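Bump. Still looking for M23ase beta-sheet core domain-containing protein structure tokens.
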Amino acid sequence: MSAADTSIIGTVQKARKLAALAGLLASPYILAALVILVLLFFIVLLTLFPFLIFADKESLSADAAGSSSSWYTVPTQLDADGSFYFWPAPSIANISSTFGYRDIGDGLEGHEGIDIANGPAKTENQPVYAMAAGTVTVAGAVNGYGQAIYIDHGGGLLTKYGHLSTVMDVKPGDSVQKGQRIGFIGAGKVGRSTGPHLHFQVEVNGRAVNPMDYVVMPNAGIPLELAYRALDIPAVIDFLKDRKSALANTTTLRMIDQAGKSQNVDPHLLLAITGQEQGFVPVTNNHASEIIRNPWNVFGCWCSGKGATLTTEEAAVIAAKTIVKLSQNRPEGRDPIQWLVARDNPHGYYASDTGWWIGVSKFYKALLAV
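Sorry for the wait, here they are.
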């Protein structure tokens, strides 16, 4: 057989195979199977659509609900009232030099604090606030810092604020409250520095420790008004019992509190949302035991799909992460809760009802008062 004949035979065989495949695809059974697959694809897409809008990238991963990782480190140390300590420069959400060893031109050295700066224009003369309540022990010239303020918070806890302006709001011996303005970042090079910045240092019994174990940057997405503060669980239980709520349970509230803490979101706000979304889940509701596992309707609903498989803490973490995402880029002067449902929010909105925030705000205010 010649090479030409072999080529012709091969071509014919390929053509027969293609014809057989085309006939198979034309089979009504195959066509029906393809139609079913397409329908299943659209059903899955519609089920996940609400979550794809509101959940962030981390929430899409299998382990996101139990994760506390984010763009920042969650502080391990809390103030006496269970809330986070105050970030000393709220107008600046950038660390130019971290705690630990560094080299700024004179060789490797230990850096006993963090430097907070965001370029001269956004750093010079910015206000500085006390991390916690305490007594001012130093307010003036300090070698290396130029101008500095030291505050003794008691119990061996001391904070230092260096490279400040000579314009200060406090003097040695003054008592200050948490979040009280104490001075301003200096302009230019103040003391031993490469440019304007706030050197913020935390000491425990005379030893410098990592300040990020105590404070969290405001640019974590949450405005200070909505940042984490611990639940007074017995008081909140009384509040919820008055409303005959199925959420009035210590274990449930601890899960919500832990979820809020992991994302630096106030758990009182998470509870306020359950008030607006589910009327705090009345015990008389036939599905109360199911609803309390997901009273924020993450993944679309507590009643079906992924939303019906979550624990209370998992659902609360996802709701908190959504709040963090939606809180970003809030224009100055906009109410932080209203911004969560604002139609001009570039990150989406939490609820379709534009009046949602009014009810949430009412419940939030009531919960903070317990």
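Helices lie at 3-25, 28-54, 233-242, 250-263, 267-278, 288-291, 312-327, 356-368.

Edit: fixed formatting.
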